[in-house]
Here is the input.
Amino acid sequence: MISTAERYRRFAREAAPRSPIYAAWSEAIAGDDELLALIDTLPVADRQPVLVLTAARFTGLSPRGDVRTWLEGEWDAVAAVARARATQTNDPRRTGPLIAALQGIPGPIALLEVGASAGLGLLADRYSHVFAGPSGERRIDPLDGPSSLELRCELGAGVPLPGRMPDIVWRAGLDRSPLRLDRADDERWLRTLVWPEERARAAQLDAAIGIAREHPPHLVAADAVDGVAALAAHAPADATLVVWSPAVLVYLAPAERDRFARTVARLPGNWISLDGRRVLAGVGERADESLPGADGDFLLSRDGHPLAVVSPHGERIDRWAARD
Here is the structure.
């Protein structure tokens, strides 16, 4: 296991292109033994930089503030938030790769999202999507016309242009602690998860929240492994069940990931997942043959088979394994 200091130094390097503020804060923490000792009082899973930094901002740290001073003075409040909350980033851009993966699945679709957060990923067909690549550009709108939220997904060479909006007739989300948009603190936490400089992403989140208020998704509080089959049993029998797990399985222990995969494999329908290359061992091994790349890649997979190399938040589909 790497040290907390190295964990924060790595995050600083990764965060620098997106958030100089988070990069600077992480470097400051990594070089301060007293702060590292405080963070090490948290459970290992709660020490992750995004969670601690979001908790600090949630308790009042300004983007222009000094992270050392804040954590030293407000540690009890920050630690309480870090223990109670999770990094439930609910980026609607991830629905672009979902739309692409759904192209090969016959509808109508019953969509079940695992790790649903506030359920914004369940509303893929309520957003307008623009897919743009070397072979051209295609816009796909909801059936009732253009959405207030337009999401753009850049496609690499050879990535097929999606041609249609999926017909989603049933949708439900599963999360250990769903974020309810009728709770002010839940909404504030969701907004605080957006990194300080990401204004465009904040605007997208704002539009998605507005759509979710008009079309509230059904959310169920339950464990991912033990709850998925029970929730799937409520899907209509005349629709194709699709279990969607975007960037959530990394938070499960490896044995639990394996149990989740076995559980979903026994369900009717399909399983689409978006994960780091090494999160699902079987998918990563197959991708090493069909989509070779770096360990830091994120993979879009369907039923355990890699479909594409994608960006972590879904704004790009870089390479496609095979056409449907």
